[in-house]
Amino acid sequence: MQRKLGEQLAAEFIGVFVFVFIGAGAAILSTASGAGMLGVAISTGLAMGVAISALGHISGGHFNPAVTVGAWVTGKIESGRAGLYILVQLLASAAAATLLRITLPKKIWEPSSLGATLLNPAAKSVGFTASRGLLLEAAMTFFLVIVVFGTAIDDRGTFKAIAGLGIGLAITADILVGGILTGASMNPARSFGPALLSWNWSNFWIYILGPLAGAVIAAEAYWFFFLRTREDELAVEAEGGEGSPAEFADQEEPEDQAGWLDAPHEEE
Length: 268
What we know:
The chain has about 270 residues and is mainly α. Helices cover about 70% and strands about 0% of the residues.
């Protein structure tokens, strides 16, 4: 089903708002609640999984500028809409961070810089440098975007059945690995709002370059190894070639077989 651009942008705004509000909120309160990094990982992964399950069919469920860039470099979203998605994602992040700052007393959010993703000072003291943080963010985002492509883009994947679950679990696993070191952003929008509203831009470049690099490498790798030949197969089937009987060649692909991130175009 085709969706209007306004609906898609609204879905992206809501999805990112929920993700940042829950993710940053959990980071702020992790010490006070006793939940620690495990609690942050579970709550953040659940927030993304639920958001994708609820809204993925409308916008493609990107909720992450890095995912949008990955979809763009592989031709799954056109340039204009990709730019609008990223703009809305960043605005939603700022809105979520604003609500957190209004809701929570300064003494609660200030120690964590409003849940900003930052390099752990203790890790830096034992040699975990900014360059290592960059590589870790890229690696975690690579894993996340591979899961996104495998579940939500590739029509042979689990798609609607458990795409939100798979992506949410990937985020949870990444945070359990890297959360103690970098905050495990994997998402420039997750880092942007808290950094803006707390005005703490320490090593912010890591949370832009790392996720974008990891996403592009993952997207290109998945396309080259798995989707490149798949697109050729679909083209042959559409032309009524071998394996696709001519009498079915002109039929449209069922809606439930198209990947979320073969994102719907705006209605004419």
